[in-house]
Amino acid sequence: MLEKIKTYQTFPAGSPLIHAGDDVELLSSLVEGCATISMTLEDGRVQMVGLLLPSDFIGRPGRQVAPYDITAISEVTLCSFRRRPFEVLIAETPHIGQRLLEMTLDELDAAREWMVLLGRKTAREKIASLMVILSKRLSPRGHDVHFELPLTREAMASYLGLTLETVSRQITALRRDGVIVQEGRRGITVPDLDRLIALTGDDTDGGLLA
Amino acid sequence: MLEKIKTYQTFPAGSPLIHAGDDVELLSSLVEGCATISMTLEDGRVQMVGLLLPSDFIGRPGRQVAPYDITAISEVTLCSFRRRPFEVLIAETPHIGQRLLEMTLDELDAAREWMVLLGRKTAREKIASLMVILSKRLSPRGHDVHFELPLTREAMASYLGLTLETVSRQITALRRDGVIVQEGRRGITVPDLDRLIALTGDDTDGGLLA
DNA sequence: CGCAGAGTTGATAGGCTTCAATCCTCGTGG
DNA sequence: CCACGAGGATTGAAGCCTATCAACTCTGCG
């Protein structure tokens, strides 16, 4: 049934997909590429509050107005549904509603983990944490841990609550210490993931690190 | 039907209500008092990731293991339901599921707004933001803006990603500037709420400030 | 009265930001 | 084919905000 109302769209890198305050008529699933969720203060300071990778969902059933800016940072393909038919579908199929609640709870957990990072971690720990997150989401299973950074230094800074200079310095430091190996500007290999994880400052038992 | 499975319980200030990693058998609604949601790093640094005030919900349907510590910071009264019957109720009444999704989305929005605070705001802006939040939730409507701080300086520091000394200094500074008036250690009056809001750094148009 | 916990205030230090200059890298066009 | 340009990234120096360490004050209560 979803088949009937879905459409695919592709946007170039840098496209604003949604602007805070807009009326949102389309709910989407990110099929390919990478986008960011961000908020801006009065004087222009920006904080990224979410990173969207393939399989992530964009938009909220039951909410007309977008609370955040969403921007493509690589070429992005979306699979979109019009709001109304989708909301009807949810109302009729409790199972989908439950799944949506599950996803929202996961997002909430991720947001809270990120609050700990923003509030209490050092620059070094922040960078290590980001690398671990990206390793888990982008590195193919089973192989050596390797991935391409989908973010510029500026975007990383925005996500981590740092400046781009500090991000650059800390990445340089991690490379000097042999914790990561760089291939070109964006390629990252992690020779020993446990060593990287040890630098995140996270409590290694307490449940959340699934 | 909820009537049949609900029980009331009261806990003294300081009680740990839930410890991260625990199996949670009871879902609750906070009836009276104030509690905090917090996470702890390896070496003991603590970040509060949520503040629970009357009418807030504790626990997640469908999630057995608690991801956070929840602690009473004043005497607290909970209205609790056993997990199973409550989950059955949700499955049978889509309306409740929708309400739960609504509440979770609200929490997510609050968490993301807090990420901006933690990542980008100055100490001054953080304190001002907290005061505004507490004004909105604790000050009786229609009167002058006045409330009692439910948090110690340390708890505020934990919530704001600061130290308690910095919190104390900034509160002193706000009082010196006449933005707030203190009555005793905990009483706060805000003579001009707009002036306080102007100090939060928040963008005053873009949607989220409902 | 005196103690304990919460809060305030002061001095110092450190980590990150800011400002600035330079270096890469890659795509473009002469 | 290679020089050139522009945006991204790195590196350096200086300064500021907040943390840290420490002493002291206030308040309520046994």
What can be said about this structure in brief?
The structure is a homodimer of 210-residue chains. With 210 residues, chain A is of the alpha+beta class. Chain A has six helices and eleven strands.
CATH class of the largest domain in chain A: Mainly Beta
Average residue-wise pLDDT of chain A? 91
Q: What is the subunit organization of this protein?
A: homodimer
Q: How many separate domains of chain A?
A: 2
Structure report:
Chains A, B: Residues 121-194 form the HTH crp-type domain. Chains A, B: It holds the Pfam family cNMP_binding. Chains A, B: Keywords: DNA-binding, Transcription, Transcription regulation. Chains A, B: InterPro entries: cNMP-bd_dom (IPR000595), cNMP-bd_dom_sf (IPR018490), Env_Response_Regulators (IPR050397), HTH_CRP (IPR012318), RmlC-like_jellyroll (IPR014710), Tscrpt_reg_HTH_Crp-type_CS (IPR018335), WH-like_DNA-bd_sf (IPR036388), WH_DNA-bd_sf (IPR036390). Chains A, B: This is CRP/FNR family transcriptional regulator, anaerobic regulatory protein. 2 copies of one chain form a homodimer. Chain A has 210 residues and is α+β, with helices and mostly antiparallel strands. Chain A has helices at 83-92, 94-120, 123-138, 153-160, 164-176, 193-198, and strands at residues 6-11, 16-18, 26-32, 35-40, 46-52, 57-58, 69-72, 76-82, 145-148, 181-183, 187-190. Chain A is globular and about 55 Å long. Chain A has 2 domains: 2-93, Jelly Rolls; 121-198, Winged helix-like DNA-binding domain superfamily/Winged helix DNA-binding domain (Arc Repressor Mutant, subunit A, Orthogonal Bundle). In chain A, helix 3 crosses helix 5 (164-176) and helix 4 (153-160) packs across helix 5. Chain A has 6 helices and 11 strands. In chain A, 38% of the residues lie in helices and 25% in strands. A 4-stranded antiparallel β-sheet of chain A has the order 1-8-3-6. In chain A, strands 2-7-4-5 form a 4-stranded antiparallel β-sheet. The interface between A and B is large, with 53 and 53 residues. Chain A binds a DNA duplex (30 and 30 nucleotides) through residues 122-123, 152-154, 162-166, 168-169, 171-172, 184-185.
